[in-house]
Amino acid sequence: AQSVTQLDSQVPVFEEAPVELRCNYSSSVSVYLFWYVQYPNQGLQLLLKYLSGSTLVKGINGFEAEFNKSQTSFHLRKPSVHISDTAEYFCAVSFLNTGFQKLVFGTGTRLLVSP
Amino acid sequence: AAGVIQSPRHLIKEKRETATLKCYPIPRHDTVYWYQQGPGQDPQFLISFYEKMQSDKGSIPDRFSAQQFSDYHSELNMSSLELGDSALYFCASSLEGRTVLGSYNEQFFGPGTRLTVL
């Protein structure tokens, strides 16, 4: 079965602390991996993506993620968060057994950054 | 840079009414995707079109239909609306969205249409 799991529905963290948002997937085929951010009442913005090559990918706003094929994970990290990072974060996967690149999203993780 | 345009941004309908959501892709993008995001939920893929033909279908109810026109804009038609149809509907566009190993054409998302069914 093909699925995407974000185990943490909410992650509270203090400003300037590091954070990791977890994402695991299940697939028997190759995948493309993405992280999107959604601010309140706004659309989805791409943070970063992994297609191939280096397993450590850097995105916008200081975020990075590491693809671990053996653990089928793609965790998102930031070494020092800001209040403005408070948002909903979605992990998404494109499974490469279909002809077209629809995205399957995880259930999202709400990052709450407090002073 | 031009982005994906969705209209209307907000829509309020009564149960059993009909709604039409429109999506205007980024110029030269030929692939359109529709996603539905219920309150507190993750976006769910509904349907996609490539070169005016349906390319993939997800969890789209039979009461919904969609099409892509010659100018590549797309419309999502929703009939016999139910309370559970209240959601944020996203449209995304890309260049040819075929899966070719090693390449990817990014999906750019519109701001969404918030549909409220009363």
What does this structure look like?
The complex is a heterodimer of chains A (115) and B (118). Chain A has 115 residues and is mainly β. Chain A has strands spanning 3-5, 10-14, 19-21, 24-26, 31-38, 44-50, 56-58, 64-68, 73-78, 87-95, 104-105, 109-114. In chain A, the strands form three sheets. In chain A, strands 2, 5, 6, 10, 11 and 12 form a six-stranded mixed β-sheet that branches. In chain A, strands 3-9-8-7 form a four-stranded antiparallel β-sheet, with no helix packed on it. Chain A has a two-stranded antiparallel sheet with strand order 1-4. In chain A, a hairpin with a 4-residue loop joins strand 8 and strand 9 (73-78). Chain A is globular. The termini of chain A are far apart. With 118 residues, chain B is mainly β. Chain B has strands at 5-7, 10-13, 19-24, 31-37, 44-50, 53-57, 64-68, 74-78, 87-94, 108-109, 113-117. Chain A binds chain B through residues 30, 32, 36, 42-46, 49, 51-52, 90, 94, 96, 98-108, and chain B through 31, 33, 35, 41-45, 48, 50, 55-56, 58, 90, 94, 97-99, 101-107, 109-112.
Entry keywords:
heterodimer; A: 115 residues; six-stranded mixed beta sheet; B: 118 residues; mainly beta; seven-stranded mixed beta sheet; four-stranded antiparallel beta sheet
Report the span from N to C terminus of chain A: 41 Å
Q: Report the major sheet of chain A.
A: 6 strands, mixed
Instruction: Tell me the greatest interface.
Output: A-B, 25 and 29 residues
Distance between the termini of chain B: 36 Å
Q: Outline the low-pLDDT stretches of chain B.
A: none
Number of strands of chain B: 11
Helix content of chain A: under 10%
Give the oligomeric state: heterodimer
Shape of chain B: globular
Strand content of chain A: over 45%
**Which structural class best describes the helix and strand composition of chain A?**
mainly beta
Question: Could you tell me the radius of gyration of chain A in angstroms?
Answer: 14 Å
